[in-house]
DNA sequence: CTGAAAGCGCTAACAT
DNA sequence: ATGTTAGCGCTTTCAG
């Protein structure tokens, strides 16, 4: 099999000009039924596929949307991708998720750069504290933030109200009678982490509970193992908490695992509240009480907003609703 | 801010020709220190990034590797991506994972087609039974199969020995004294599913156990919910199994959930064996006894083989080792 | 060591 | 309705 046929080969095969081939390929201009058929025959005879590089170089767009994600392994992100992919696709765009996990802390920023310039726009889920990183990643392209937005910036975003959600969660714990409430968080470079901490603090304050620094653990990531370690350290403080609020379900599940191994019954000895409501939250034993984020909707909204941006509009920020889902761990 | 600067703008700014700019960008040919500096200054002054479309159109390659995945949501695949991404990256390639889940059954095959022609090669994890789909996806590009290979084809692959692994798992159950062993599988379009079923059958046969069609459940997917439903149906047969072997950890965990809800203790009343050894397997209660696949290594090997292929070599198929990891569910 | 120029495959005026 | 042609941004001979 010889090398890939170009549009010219198709034109020759069909006995028409390349412009005509382009027209039937894209449906941009009317073409007589007869020629159309000849072209289509040639296309399939040659097994021709348009070369996206040629096309994009010419049109200036790729119809690819990039999604920058902090971590493929967290099921939370998989759901968001699903939502975003569906709306992108139906608008004729392809959503490309890229896991930046391997690239953080690396001097080599070529992935974001390459992909950034490959795409027509980007949906960002990773923390972008400094301006440099932000410009780097967006590369002048339209972009929107999802969950991680920049307060005060003019980049459109969609998120839940992390602060309020955390307050609601902790308030629920307080209403259940808890007074010593631990807090397990992942990485405070993330806005969600900072805002949920604020919500935690606010709920404590409102209830007249003294903040207890020894009860807050910053793990660095959202792995199960990190949750377990945090729980272990909470168990080690002099007056251990009777409840803990974790900023993700994975952390919460890791914590429960640790508590169980240590012989503490959940929720009897210690209550555990998660965040996200990923699929495993409903399956794990005990069922995890958690703050549900509308993950699919977040992804879908992000894609819609990006599409609007590409369309020249100025989409307004959106805050979606969270809700407490009560299961057995609290 | 004006539109993106091209290489020509850089050349003008630096007072050199575009060829020279290209040379310092790529280090292809020697350039005097003085001009190099001028060019570099121009590049950063203009915040220039090379346009990947122009470059790829010219070179005929993109340095992008595509990974075709059946389902982002299954943690199993996340681990494989991790392995493949690491080796791709260090070879100067970017790994792009694409979730085909949304596209299966769709007439629109544009995702695979677009991405296929965007990339220099593909790592395939989805079942490719028919030739058409296979050619479509590869689009004449080098490709390798990972886990899902095509027996008898000349496409390089890396996998474990699914059949043997399943036999080992079931044999272990048999050694534990089980005689009625259920089997929960996902989707028999997958080679892994067919081969693990063969292994299950073989182990039964060798032990002189009669095959019991009422004990095998084909769910269609690997969700927790599917595992639960399958378990429920197993509970409903006249002589329910004392052990069940599921082809994935997610299915196994779903099954355990169902058994627990039905008041059956695992492993006391019914033993459950999973497959994959994803992170949650170690955290779930009870800890899941499972067949561990070297997921990261599978991904890494797949990437290495693809790279070899791109290098003109003919990599030999590889079979990696599985191993039983014993926890509490059996 | 550097520049001029010929493409790479495609789209979109502009003709006809 | 169809063909001609000028780019899109880049790499790479080929000259010098």
From TrEMBL, chains A, B:
Keyword DNA-binding: yes
CDD domains per record: HTH_LacI, PBP1_LacI-like
Taxonomic placement: Bacteria, Pseudomonadati, Pseudomonadota, Betaproteobacteria, Burkholderiales
InterPro entries: HTH_LacI, LacI/GalR-like_sensor, Lambda_DNA-bd_dom_sf, Peripla_BP_I
Protein name stated in the entry: DNA-binding LacI/PurR family transcriptional regulator
PANTHER family the record matches: LACI-RELATED TRANSCRIPTIONAL REPRESSOR, LACTOSE OPERON REPRESSOR
Keyword DNA-binding belongs to the record: yes
Organism superkingdom: Bacteria
GO MF annotation, one: transcription cis-regulatory region binding
A Pfam match: Peripla_BP_3
Transmembrane region(s): none
SUPFAM superfamilies, sorted: lambda repressor-like DNA-binding domains, Periplasmic binding protein-like I
Record key words, sorted: DNA-binding, Transcription, Transcription regulation
